[in-house]
Structures are given as C-alpha cells and as structure tokens.
Amino acid sequence: MAVDAEAQFHVLAVDDSLLDRKLIERLLKTSSFQVTTVDSGSKALEVLGLKEDQTSTPALSPEHNEIEVNLVITDYCMPGMTGYDLLKKIKESSSLKDIPVVIMSSENVPSRINRCLEEGAEEFFLKPVQLSDMRRLRPHILKGKHKEQQLHQEENSNTNHIIISSSNNNNMSNKRKAMDEEVLSERTRLRFSSSSLNVI
Amino acid sequence: MESDRLQKLYIDFASVVFREGFLDNQYTQLQQLQDESEPKFVLQVGTLFLEDSGKLINGLRSILDQQDVDFEKLDACVRKLMGSSASIGARRVKNVCMAFHNSCKKGSKEGCLKCLQQVAQEYLLVKRKLETLFKLETQILAAGGSVPLLSQ
C-alpha cells in the first residue's frame, strides 16, 4: 500500500483561544490540510476516540464515530488539561501513540521545550505560528505512515510472535535510527525567537 | 480611479501605523492568508482581537481593584493578552504586556497599575488604527480593487 504524498491529511488543532484557533485553522487549510479544531484537551481526546480515563480505544471498527487523525497540534498553556498532559495521554495510549504531536507556545522556555520533546512531541512551534511552519508537518505525518507500513510488512512476513516495546517512542536513539537525514534535521531545527539566543 | 485613490490612501495611512509600531509584520502575514475563499479573514481575526482584549483589560482592572491582588491570576490574564496581541501583530500592546508581566512577577501593585493604564491606552490607539484599516480595506474591495500588502 503506497502512501500518496499528495493525499489530504487530517490535522486536529487544539487551542483554548478562539483567535488562535481561527489562525491555525487558516494556516492549515491554506497548506491543504483537512482541519478539525477543538478548544480543550478533553475534547481532543473525544475526537480521537479516547475517554479521559482510558488508555486504549474500545474495540470499535475505525469507521464507527471516529475520524482518522494524522497529526495533533496543540497549544501548551490551556486550562484543565495542558498540551503537555494531552501529549502524555496520546503517547500512553496503545492506539494513539503513533500519531505525531506538535506543541505550540507563545513562551520560549527551554525546559518546557525539552520536556515536550522527551515525552515524544515531534516539534515545538513558537507562536505566532507562521505559514512556513506548516511545511514541517508533512514529514512527520509521512514518517508515521512509513512506520505503520513497516510494522504491517513485518507482521506479514514473520511467523514468530513479535513483541513491540511500547517505550520505543520515548527512546531518542531508536527514533534516530528510523529517521532519514532530512527528517532528522527538521526535527532538531527549532524556531527560536530572535530576541533570545537560547541553545538547547 | 476610485480604487487607486483608496489604495494610495490605505498605503499612506498603513505606512504610518507600521512606522509608529502599532502593527508589525504579523499583520501582513494575516493579510497573506486572506483570499477569495476567506475574503474577510483579517477583519474577523482583528475583530476577535479587539473584543477579546477589551474583555481581558476589564478583567485586569477588576483583579487590580481587589484588596489582595492575585498576581498569578493577573499574570495569566496578561499572558493571554500578550498572546493575542502577538497573533494580530499589535506590537505596542504586546510590549506593554511584557512590562506588565514583569511587574506581576515582582508583585508590584504600583507597577501593575501603571502598566494597566498604558495597556488600556495602547489598546484604544490600536483599536482606532485597525478600525480605519478595516474600513479602507472594505471600501477598496467594494471598488473592485485589491488590498495592498504592507511590509515593515
């Protein structure tokens, strides 16, 4: 099953600010993404088919009440469930952990950025998000799909039972092996505000 | 031609607005996101900003009116205002918010009151500028012209 690079991908955007939701929606639509916006982490989990206290989606067929989400982009500072909390929930879920997550924040706090990357976020965008930032989303989606494909191929070709470690996503070096150079440079190239020269 | 005249008026007015720092390149970014499928994008986002900010400033005022000022709550509100002003490109409002944020961190009621006064003033100034820009943009489009993109 080949991945069509021109296929329309679906992004779930999470932000409690209506203004910022309008902005990110416009940025994503202009960049040919299908968009769903929600105003909280708990609503995001609903869209993803996960209730707040669950760790795996109920055994329903994919078409039942669920939309396929290819990437989640979320604000960090939100009341109730923060973007970081949402990220954790997604990465802890067996069914959702391979969905790439991008965090946005208006504050450039290196410890916050590190925390999110360590928890499995693909990127950290400084707000206000720019149109040029949208270009960095597709590689993460395609990488995720490629991983999915590889997994299916392995399952089909092996007769032995494969145990897949669920902690793989948090292991930076495992991630690096799976990445090609272009994706690696995308991942480590973060946007910093021009007024601060913080190096992580 | 009417749209030419309006465009020139727009450019002259907007140049001053940019030069005096009321708006910055983020506003231009928003203009670039506007097209036939979303012809009122800048107007919608701008209106949202003005409404949100008005409410936030009133909120700041009531927190500072309390005997015991909750500086954390105040700071959370200031950061929200800072975020929306950054999203629209309202640079002067954003800059006052940064000073306001510092006063919150220091727990200085006096400093915060001064910042509140400044932010309220900058808000009113940028509100007038934005409303004029929106009016001119609407008139240019009605006259069949296109809105000039501004650069700092």
From TrEMBL, chain A:
* Residue intervals of the Response regulatory domain: 10-142
Instruction: Keyword check for Protein biosynthesis, yes or no.
Output: no
InterPro entries (alphabetical): ARR-like, CheY-like_superfamily, Sig_transdc_resp-reg_receiver
Q: For bias kind Low complexity, which ranges apply?
A: 156-173
GO terms for biological process?
cytokinin-activated signaling pathway; phosphorelay signal transduction system
Q: Which segments carry the region annotation Disordered?
A: 145-183
User: What residues bear 4-aspartylphosphate in this entry?
Assistant: 75
List the Gene3D superfamilies: 3.40.50.2300
Keywords from the UniProt entry = Cytokinin signaling pathway, Phosphoprotein, Transcription, Transcription regulation, Two-component regulatory system
**Function recorded in the entry:** Functions as a response regulator involved in His-to-Asp phosphorelay signal transduction system. Phosphorylation of the Asp residue in the receiver domain activates the ability of the protein to promote the transcription of target genes. Type-A response regulators seem to act as negative regulators of the cytokinin signaling.
State the family it belongs to: Belongs to the ARR family. Type-A subfamily.
Its recorded name reads Response regulatory domain-containing protein
Native source species: Musa acuminata subsp. malaccensis
UniProtKB/TrEMBL annotation, chain B:
Name a single GO cellular component.
cytosol
Protein's UniProt keywords contain Nucleus: yes
Where do the HPt domain residues begin and end? 38-143
User: Which Pfam families does the record associate with it?
Assistant: Hpt (PF01627)
Name its cellular compartments.
Cytoplasm, Cytosol; Nucleus
In terms of superkingdom, the source organism counts as Eukaryota
Identify the SUPFAM superfamilies for this entry. Answer: Histidine-containing phosphotransfer domain, HPT domain
Sorted UniProt keywords: Cytokinin signaling pathway, Cytoplasm, Nucleus, Two-component regulatory system
Entry's Gene Ontology BP terms: cytokinin-activated signaling pathway; phosphorelay signal transduction system; positive regulation of cytokinin-activated signaling pathway
Asked whether the UniProt record includes Translocase among its keywords, one would answer no
MF-aspect GO terms: histidine phosphotransfer kinase activity; protein histidine kinase binding
Q: What does this protein do?
A: Functions as a two-component phosphorelay mediators between cytokinin sensor histidine kinases and response regulators (B-type ARRs). Plays an important role in propagating cytokinin signal transduction through the multistep His-to-Asp phosphorelay. Functions as a positive regulator of the cytokinin signaling pathway. May play a regulatory role in salt and drought tolerance during plant development.
Entry text on domains:
Histidine-containing phosphotransfer domain (HPt) contains an active histidine that mediates the phosphotransfer.
UniProt protein name: Histidine-containing phosphotransfer protein
